Amino acid sequence: MTFCKIIVLCTALSLWPAFARAQWEAEADPTAYALKGFSAHVGHSIFDGRSRLQFGAFGAETPEWIHGNSGFTENSRGVTLKVDYFPLRPSDGWFVGADSNYARVRYELNQTHERTYRNLVGLGPRVGYRFNFGKHLYVSPWVSVDYQLNAKDVTISGKTFHESRYSVFPALHLGWRF
User: Which residue ranges of the chain lie beneath pLDDT 50?
Assistant: First the structure.
């Protein structure tokens, strides 16, 4: 265990100069708030500004017309880690990246209000475009296609919620660079 702590400490110290030079950013997805949830993310440019690391927390109640399972309510809360690369200009324009997330998902059968919970882990590519407005404000529409590593159908009182292994997730983040 001590060896692992030493490796983590050495890695953190070796990356510190890259983090110290870059700017911090905060962003959110307003759609999550409209879906009885939340969205809060912190991003940081790394290396030459063409790469970006982002940590976040999210939650939302997925509408039935999206999940497609009649008579069920799906509600998720989780955390995410994203890494992006801006090939044309540092922190501006098109970007490609990877999206990973962990979510605690609640499935509720509306008829009986019985619930069950599952933990889902997703991983996949994402692509988007970042519009910068001045030095601080930015808007980033993006879409990811995640493979849900442990997705399984959920059965409550004989009714089945069919959970897809793939999740297509479009988003629009509003952000502020400090």
Answer: 19
Q: 75 with 122: CB under 8 angstroms? A: no
CA distance 69 to 10: 48
CB neighbour burial string for 2-24, b if at least 16 within 10 angstroms, e if fewer: eeeeeeeeeeeeeeeeeeeebee
CA-wise closest residue to 28 among 147, 125, 138, 132: 138
Write the DSSP string, 129-161: EEEEETTTEEEEEEEEEEEETT---EEETTEEE
Is the dihedral angle over the CA atoms 59, 132, 99, 146 positive or is it negative?
A: positive
Say whether 21 sits in a helix, a strand or coil: helix
Beta-carbon count within 10 A of 101 CB: 22
The pLDDT assigned to 47 comes to: 84
The pLDDT of residue 2 is 67
| Fold (topology level) of 23-177 | Porin (2.40.160)
pTM for this structure?
0.83
